[in-house]
Predict the 3D structure of the following.
Amino acid sequence: MSAPIIQINELYKKYKDADFFSVNSLSLSIEKNEIFGLLGPNGAGKTTLISILCGLIKPTSGKFTINGLSYDKNATQIKKTIGVVPQEYALYPTLTARENLRYFGSMYGLKGKELHQKVDDALEHLGLLKFADKRIETFSGGMKRRINLIAGILHQPAVLFLDEPTVGVDVQSKNVIIDYLKSLNAKGTTIIYTSHHLLEAQDFCTKIAIIDQGKIYAEGTPKALISNTERAHNLEDVFISLTGKELRDVV
């Protein structure tokens, strides 16, 4: 059996002046080709964990590897291995869709005919080629969400981190995005996905970890999590059973 594509061992993160650890003794193995859902309430530690794995912040202690590499020795190589699609749009509104994507593709080392072809292929796949030369500021939310996704996958990453990839979009856009992500996964991209859409996660993910208070409360396939939780009919029932009904408003 091959080594996990992501291996996390005893990871901790405590922000300056914080009373609690945002990530607390967290260990996790994610296999190649999984669509792995990281689910949890607001403030559970999901964003902190993703930020650590993407190299945006450093853990307080603990270790992790991506594709057998650690940031201590291989930061540049890891950044070429991963793709990141944030919840906030990381796009230039006054540039066209094509200009945005050629810019982001060039940051990953793509250029010339290869870059232009990858941009046009992705735009066509996601139904946006006819809008390629329109400025982003004229796009609907669903169109921006699709461009945001393309910007993170042009370099064909081995691991793709997605933060709420379908938030605020219509059903048609959501279906196009999910189908496209499934096709990327079928070609070998491991997907790490966070969302508050639990029924979407139930259908989309091959495996799930439910996180709260910086710890993993449960891990397994959606089917196993549901069958192992008393009176659970779906992933939402599992989630409430593990994390409670209390509101999780955070400032």
Q: What stands out?
A: Residues 6-243 form a domain with the Rossmann fold fold (CATH 3.40.50.300). The longest helix spans residues 171-186. The chain has one domain: 6-243.
